[in-house]
Amino acid sequence: MSLGILLAIFMVALLFVLVSIIRFKLHPFLALLVGGLLMGILAGMPLNKAAATMAAGFGGTMQGIGIIIILGVALGTLLHVSGCTSQIAALLLRVTGTQNAPTAIALTGYIVSIPVFFDAAFVILVNLVKTLSRQGRIPFATLVTALAVGLITTHAMVIPTPGPIAVAATMGVNIGWFLLYAIIVSLPAVMVGGVLYGKYLGTQDAYREDFANAFEEEMEGDEAQVGAAAEARNLPSGSLGIFLIFFPIFIILLGTVAGMVFEKGTAAYIFFNFIGDKNIALLLGLFMAFFCLRPYLQASFHDLVNEACTQSGIILAITGAGGAFGKIINETGIGKQLVEGMTGLTDGTGVAILIACFVISQVLRAAQGSTTVALVTTSAIFAPVLASLPGVSAILASLAICAGGIGLSLPNDSGFWVINRFGKFDVPGTMRVWTVGGTISGVTALVVILILSMFTNSLPGLL
């Protein structure tokens, strides 16, 4: 089937998902499943394969993020109900001032997402954002944009997250130089797409009302719980809350570093590789949080975890359906045809190759939803292309691929529904904050990369 026909089918399936959710109020779980089946059937996929692919996509998504979403929600619940997030918010406001709070939140997301999976990091920090928004009288849209864009930009560009690691390995670049330039490129992207654009959203009256009202009732209930805890005992310190947030991050980093230090197969390697697993690290983080915060909790640990499991159910259903939708799209072969069609349009110059790396990665990200899959696929295509173009910086090409994986998140992306549900947004609101903010960040990163390409021969490590 030709690329044009596949793209038309993709647009029909995507339009069905958006219209059925926005106009006809169909539940996203059902809309995504039906949309995926529609894509597969129209693309000529056998019915039994379409059904099997849908199930495989759902199961694969659950395997990757199911446990960490539940653990992340439970950790976030402990931090919030104990009053810890309000103390962190107060600490951040004292250190940065209200005017600079979006920058502080963006940088917090930027750092946290280096070792922690995006979904888990967002659910851990979103209650902090809500509290900071209320206490500092800062529009929720401003802060959640700063957080989400900070998280996804790092997730797509900075090692040791899986996507950038795969790109660096496939392209054969030096990890040290790759990390240095990834930081140089990604920080301006976060400032523009997360902080500046987030502040712009906060100035829009209609947007402010949409987002402020979205969680007002929920926060009133939370305030009652936190208030009851405050009357009974002192609140935990903000520094303790920061420690508990970064505790699982430290464990993951420890496992990553130890994996490079100890020889594979040794007892030390096996132990640190085990505790450095994202699921184990968050499990340890949850128990550490309970141990440190139990004097400040009114409800039992059992009840709080049960509440977290209940809250996670809708998120797991929707993210799994998004994974099913993305899997069916990927199995139609649209990604392969997009790459084959667009690589032939480059003229062999450095700038053209960098733009092609970005565009193909961006389109693949939109088409099948996963940042990591888009990065892995695009880097596998361009690695042999760059081998015949010695004047093009492999590091800049790698970063352009990573930048393409940031934006254009659509309803076939599980992250879209994490932002949607935990932020209490509607679908158009999610696209304003998440899709547009991430796309601005990705384009900004590309602009910085193109500027760096003008100094390829003079800057160290680029060639």
Note down, in words, how this protein is organized.
Helix content is 80%, strand content 0%. It has 21 helices and no strands. The chain has helices spanning 3-22, 28-42, 47-81, 84-96, 101-112, 118-136, 140-157, 162-171, 175-202, 205-214, 216-232, 238-261, 267-275, 278-293, 301-331, 334-343, 350-368, 371-387, 394-404, 414-422, 427-453. The longest helix has 35 residues, at 47-81. The radius of gyration is 22 Å and the shape is globular. The two termini are 40 Å apart. Mean pLDDT is 80; it is low at 210-215 and 223-232.
Question: What is the secondary structure topology, with strand pairs?
Answer:
Layout: H1 3-22, H2 28-42, H3 47-81, H4 84-96, H5 101-112, H6 118-136, H7 140-157, H8 162-171, H9 175-202, H10 205-214, H11 216-232, H12 238-261, H13 267-275, H14 278-293, H15 301-331, H16 334-343, H17 350-368, H18 371-387, H19 394-404, H20 414-422, H21 427-453
Helix pairs in contact: 1-2, 2-3, 2-15, 3-6, 3-14, 3-15, 4-6, 4-12, 5-6, 5-7, 5-9, 6-7, 6-20, 7-9, 7-21, 8-18, 8-19, 9-19, 9-21, 12-13, 12-14, 15-20, 16-17, 16-18, 17-18, 17-19, 17-21, 18-19, 19-21, 20-21
- Compressed to H and E, one letter per element, the order equals HHHHHHHHHHHHHHHHHHHHH
Summing up helix and strand content along with how strands pair, one would put the structural category as: mainly alpha
Mean pLDDT: 80
> How many helix segments?
21
Give the proportion of residues in helices.
over 70%
The count of DSSP E runs of length 2 or more, i.e. the number of strands, is: 0
Q: What general form does the structure show?
A: globular
Low-pLDDT runs of 5+ residues are 210-215, 223-232
Strand content: under 5%
Could you give a short account of the major beta sheet? Answer: none
